[in-house]
# Entry
Amino acid sequence: MTEDAPAPRRRGRPARTAAGPGPDARTRILEAARTEFSERGYDKTSVRGIARAAGVDSALVHHYFGTKDEVFAAAIELSFEPALLVPAVLEGDPGDVGERLARAFIAIWENPATRAPLLAVLRSALTHEAAAKVLRSFVLRRLLERVAAGLNVPDATFRAELAASHMVGIAIVRYVLKAEPLASAPPERIIEMVAPTLQRYLTEPPA
# Structure
């Protein structure tokens, strides 16, 4: 080997140059994953396709996220931003937690930047067991358990799950099925109607 010859590449994590210019590789991979899952669905999205869209080697995707399921879970987390959502819901008067939860949930779905990946997540979960498992794990461990931990009421986890089931149902009817009149109802009208039910789920003692 001559002095000018490049050193042989080692197996494992790709060289930093594989990531290319622009945002850091992890961010680019995550953004590409959101787009791929949104446009192709869970079944037709592959780690190789995500890597190609991000302009990196597929080994780098595995390095940061591991499996396709783990990339999918990271895309869900990015869309929900639970670290911001949960404190915003729990902070303040417990008597208004239902309205805060309804407002935060509707705001996420009404935002075009987060709606598309969330639609992909929801559609994938309805048709693919692996995607459903990832979504269940995320909702239960990263969202509901954190909400439940902040509720000083009996059966907190069960209550949080009831609230989540109500909100997911709204998402399916309004954004997936687009059933009228819910599909075109003003967000404030939905919040007004839904908040009392969420409040009852989360805070009212059983009769």
